[in-house]
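Regression test case RT-17, inverse folding.

Input:
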């Protein structure tokens, strides 16, 4: 009987259990083709942790190195010592461990010439798991050695997986913390939505290479469960903004949407994700991200933590919005009292607020500041409550003394608002004080010029004049459009900040849409 035949003695008598589709990959490295055949026969039917064994063959140490340079899924290698040279196997092992950096793969070193490489020397100097003479290995002994090698490989990979999972979780928690800090600072629903979408993707795709991320569409809806409104939509959902969320709009993901709402938690599937959050008032939000494949499976606990933080930010924003609405209502009520006293109809304050917001955004002011200017601008003439009726209601032009009295409304408005703590009312105080200042320093009450005038004052100066000229007042008729625009342009660099004038003309079409929407009631 040959040496190969000797270690093929079958001393097993137990049948192998059925295998699953996944396989353990084992590499056979030997220059004798018969050794490959008998090794494959010996390992036939081996099952470890419900996974079968799949073998691969290399016939020299160099071939094994080349094979392993592009394969990282080999669990175990059976390597002969003597192949193209007397120490080819040992050299291959050294290269695999040191140059290729493969320390996970388990190695069983075999030799048909035990004297060529003393076992003690080999075990001490090479990173191997087992060193056997071929004549020592019966089929069952080989089976046992391979089984032990696979167990060792499995344990190493489990440790590595746990280490990576711990690292991913740590990164994930850091991402969630960073994302939450961003979300807590949002000042509007638009900012919250944009922030959640940006931060959500950084959490979802935490450990996924950027080249494999493919998104076909996103959709964000908020509101009462029965009246969800789509606030933002991209890709395959583009064009659905400001519409009600319906089964037709999300037909492909209807099951996931219904499940997220019913169970009140996020749903992550193979090719889509539905994020769920809810306020204490019962208003909910849904974030849909859809992609073909692959879409990552994520740590459900991590994503739920993220959306709990989103819920806190959402709740805070709703409360802030409710407070702002109350504040806005009070401001508009006060402003309308002033406008009614001066016999100007109330749409002036609405138009001025919207014009000012458009200009602030066009000038790239932060959303929070632009929104504050919009809310505060209706109070620009609040000081007129202190102007006597005979001056305020005079149908014709004011004389010099009356003009002097009228001009005091800027200082009066500032004094009324300046000591209030609200940020919006502080902006309102500035606007009331400075909306009659001029860029060249010839305005009132303090003859401020250039950048010494607050940007809110510069914006309000233009919007107030534009609306005053465009509309009929008790003492004049409305000016023609061309004359109004000529006057605004002529005032650039003298009455008005040139940058504000330039921004005005860039957004003029939008301003005129607003002007038509808030047309004075006849």
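Golden output:
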């Amino acid at each position: 009987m040959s040496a190969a035949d000797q270690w093929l003695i079958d001393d097993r008598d137990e049948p192998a259990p059925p295998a699953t589709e996944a396989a353990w990959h084992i590499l056979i490295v030997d220059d004798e083709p018969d050794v490959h055949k008998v090794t494959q026969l010996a390992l036939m039917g081996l099952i470890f942790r419900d996974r079968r064994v799949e073998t691969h063959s290399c016939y020299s140490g160099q071939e094994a190195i080349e094979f392993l340079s592009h394969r990282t899924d080999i669990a175990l290698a059976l390597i002969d010592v003597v192949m193209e040279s007397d120490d080819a196997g040992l050299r291959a092992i050294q290269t695999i461990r040191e140059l290729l950096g493969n320390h996970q793969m388990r190695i069983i070193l075999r030799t048909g010439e035990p004297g060529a490489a003393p076992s003690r020397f080999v075990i001490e100097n090479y990173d191997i798991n087992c060193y056997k003479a071929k004549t020592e290995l019966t089929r069952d002994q080989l089976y046992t050695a391979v089984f032990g090698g696979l167990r060792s490989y499995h344990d190493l990979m489990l440790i590595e997986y746990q280490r990576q999972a711990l690292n991913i979780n740590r990164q994930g928690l850091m991402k969630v913390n960073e994302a939450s800090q961003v979300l807590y600072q949002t000042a509007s629903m638009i900012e919250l939505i944009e922030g959640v979408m940006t931060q959500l993707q950084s959490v979802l795709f935490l450990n996924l290479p950027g080249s494999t991320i493919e998104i076909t569409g996103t959709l964000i809806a908020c509101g009462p469960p029965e009246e969800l409104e789509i606030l933002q939509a991209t890709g395959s959902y583009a064009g659905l903004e400001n519409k009600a969320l319906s089964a037709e709009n999300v037909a492909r993901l209807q099951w996931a949407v219904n499940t997220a709402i019913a169970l009140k938690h996020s749903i992550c599937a193979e090719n889509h994700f539905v994020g769920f959050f809810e306020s204490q008032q019962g208003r909910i939000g849904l974030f849909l991200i859809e992609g073909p494949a692959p879409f990552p499976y994520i740590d459900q606990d991590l994503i739920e933590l993220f959306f709990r933080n989103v819920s806190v930010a959402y709740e805070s924003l709703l409360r802030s919005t409710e407070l702002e609405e109350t504040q806005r209502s009070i401001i508009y009520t006060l402003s309308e009292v002033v406008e009614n006293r001066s016999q100007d109809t109330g749409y002036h304050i609405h138009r001025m607020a919207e014009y000012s917001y458009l200009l602030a955004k066009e000038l790239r002011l932060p959303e929070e500041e632009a929104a504050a200017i919009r809310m505060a601008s209706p109070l620009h003439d609040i000081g007129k409550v202190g102007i006597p009726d005979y001056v305020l209601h005079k149908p014709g032009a004011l004389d010099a003394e009356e003009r002097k009295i009228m001009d005091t409304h800027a200082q009066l408005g500032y004094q009324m608002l300046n000591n209030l703590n609200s940020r919006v009312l502080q902006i309102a105080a500035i606007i009331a004080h400075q909306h009659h200042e001029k860029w060249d320093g010839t305005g009132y009450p303090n003859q401020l010029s250039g950048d010494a005038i607050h940007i809110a004052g510069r914006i309000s100066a233009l919007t107030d004049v534009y609306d005053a000229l465009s509309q009929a007042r008790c003492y004049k008729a409305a000016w023609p459009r061309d004359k109004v625009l000529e006057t605004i342009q002529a005032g650039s660099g003298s009455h008005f900040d040139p940058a504000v004038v330039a921004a005005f003309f860039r957004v003029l079409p939008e301003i005129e849409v607003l002007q038509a929407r808030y047309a004075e009631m006849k």
